[in-house]
Each structure stands twice: as C-alpha cells, then as structure tokens.
Design goal:
Layout (H helix, E strand, L loop, with lengths): L7 E4 L5 H12 L3 E6 L2 H11 L3 E5 L5 H13 L4 E6 L14 H20 L5 E10 L12 H20 L6 E5 L7 H4 L3 H10 L36 E2 L15
Parallel strand pairs: 1-2, 1-4, 2-3, 4-5, 5-6, 6-7
Helix pairs in contact: 4-5
C-alpha cells in the first residue's frame, strides 16, 4: 500500500519548486492534494502536470480571505486534512542600509504571517494525529550578507514548530520544519545570478559554494509519513537540514 493512501494534504506554494515536487510525490504515494498558487496560469499548469487527485485553489497566503477560501474549498468536499505543508515563501537579497519597508513587509507578510495563518486556519479541519510541515531554510541559522531579513523570517517559523509541538500535543499533531540549502526554484533564481552567488559564497569562507540543490532531491523525512512519531519524542520536532554539509577543508559549504 502507498504510504499516504487515503490521506489529504494541503500544500501552499504548490505550483513550482519544493511545493510542486512535494505535491507530485504525495499524489504518487496515494494522497489527495490541495495546492495553492498566486497565479492562475501556473496553478492550472501544475494541476495538469500532477494529473489525478489534485485540486488547485488560487490564492496568496498573505491574504487571510484567500486562506479562508482555500479551507472552504476543502470543507466543501467533505474531507478533513492529514497534512498541512506551509511551503509558500518569498526570498530577496538586500543589504543593510538599503532595506525598505516594502522589502520587510513583503518577506514577513508571506513567510511569517502567511505561514502562521495557513496553519491556524487549518486547525478546525486537521485530524488528530495530523502532521504540520513548514518550509524553513538553513538561512535561519547562518548569517548571509544581504539575505538576513529572509533568514529572520525562517528563524521565526523554526520557533513556531517548537511551540506548536507542545501546544498541540493533546491532539497528537506533530510540527516539523524542513531547512533546505540553496534550491533551484523561482523564489531566488529569478534574480541576477551574481546577486545570489556572491553573498552565498561569502557566507561560508574559506570553502567553496557548490551550487544549487534540486527540489525533488530533498530527503523524505518521517514527517511525510502517516505513521506519526509520538509528540515530544526526539523526532517529533524534526528539522531536516537539507543539502547542508559538515564543513571541512575538502567539503563545500551550503547556505
């Protein structure tokens, strides 16, 4: 039997990158997946590419009315949720001295506010024993020039899961954060290559940055499994440090 047979998952930011790769995997493992994206064209393309057992709901996680519409859509099908994967996020490089209110608000509204309310609004539909997964970043623990506002947003959601594990223990709902290194997705690769590569290289001297990871190559940690680890166990607040290597004179460093 497939690992997620009969399960229902909600994945925000599911049209590209890590979100799309996760949605495709979940469907192959037997789940019905609801995915979101801000742009209808890309959302329709993602739904066609995944094929069966997927529902697309257009929306921006920073807009609470869009999140209400997402969960109204799930509720209207008579389904409840086994996995909520709050993956939608935004990244942008800007150095100290050039930070604008728009830059700050854009990152915190999507990455922090959007993640918080994606999960909070899911709670009435979450089954007991469900799994909450957040897409974090190793930027949350590394200091990267011009990328630390983004890192701060990911540090915030890393703290979310630590508290939620305790708050939701009576419902056996487990919270986890995945922390990938640089990944080849539109969140960053739409920006000039040197604007990205230079601060990444500078974040890990004297070692050499060895390039982008791939969305489909992230490990499949226990938080993807319907067989939930008991909350408050060492594995229940899992942080998967994707694509991060131990530093040595021969080993490249990833953000």
């Amino acid at each position: 039997m497939s690992k997620l047979q009969g399960k229902v998952a909600v994945i925000t930011g599911g049209t590209t990158g890590i979100g799309f790769a996760a949605a495709d995997l979940f469907v192959k493992e037997g789940a019905h997946v609801f995915i979101t994206g801000r742009r209808q064209k890309e959302l329709d393309e993602a739904v066609r590419a995944i094929g069966n057992n997927v529902t697309g709901v257009q929306g921006d996680v920073a807009k609470l009315s869009d999140l209400d519409r997402l969960y109204d859509t799930v509720k209207a099908t008579g389904r409840r949720i086994d996995v909520v994967f709050a993956n939608a996020g935004f990244g942008e490089f800007l150095a100290l001295g050039k930070i604008t209110e728009e830059h700050y608000d854009k990152l915190f509204d999507t990455n922090v506010k959007g993640t918080l309310f994606t999960v909070q609004k899911a709670l009435p539909l979450l089954n007991d024993g469900a799994s909450i997964i957040l897409t974090g970043s190793v930027a949350s623990i590394k200091g990267t020039p011009a990328f630390w506002v983004y890192g701060a947003t990911k540090a915030a959601i890393r703290n979310f899961v630590r508290a939620w594990t305790v708050e939701l223990k009576d419902r056996r709902i487990r919270s986890n954060v995945l922390s990938p290194g640089p990944t080849d997705t539109p969140i960053l690769t739409g920006q000039p290559a040197e604007a990205i590569a230079r601060p990444l290289r500078e974040s890990c001297p004297p070692f050499q940055w060895d390039g982008w990871g791939k969305p489909g190559k992230s490990p499949r940690p226990r938080c993807f499994s319907p067989q939930m680890t008991p909350v408050l166990s060492p594995a229940s607040n899992y942080s998967s440090m994707v694509a991060e290597h131990k530093s040595s004179s021969r080993t490249p460093c990833r953000l």
